[in-house]
User: What shape does this take?
Amino acid sequence: MGKTLVIGSTGQIGRQLLPLLQQSGLEVAALARNPAKLAGIDGIEIIEGDLEGNFEHAFAGCDRVVFTAGSGASTGPDKTLLIDLWAARKAVDYALKHHVKHFVMVSARGADNPDRGNSPIKPYLVAKCFADEYLQRSCVPYTILRPGRLTDDAATGCITTRRPENPEQQHITRADTARIIAHVLKSGQSKNAVYELYQGATPFADLIA
Assistant: This one.
């Protein structure tokens, strides 16, 4: 079994995901522009690379990939295009070239239809929409996860995949999102599927194969 590559390993979801993958018995490689941000995390391979450049070297020996990178709320439209769209597209191309068996894309609520509503982050949702569609058409086995508004609350282990009508209820913790990613990769199922993720009342293992 090959390695699991985490792209976006220094982000808020990525850092919670790394130990979960280790606990699942998976060999983990973490791509980081600044490896010093992962100092103190033992047992993983840290690969230096910049998403705005060529990072194909990180895919060597990997048969599972997680893309949970993001440009961040403090950046402008240029970084949205370069990271959330273009880097994601490059990652899909590298995955296809290296025969990756499972690609988990962390997308966003609303990426299915950026025209719905009047979202202030519409450019970000457009980038996510095109990245998701590119992955779906690539022939790389995929799981696309579209979490609602992310919070830093403790994990509950319970979700719904149906979008709540009340926008105030369209949220999920980063901790639960990380757990779901680890579950999807460990099970090896839920391929070629798209899930929206919100806090709910059902254990996620009962909703996501």
Summary: The chain has one domain: 3-207.
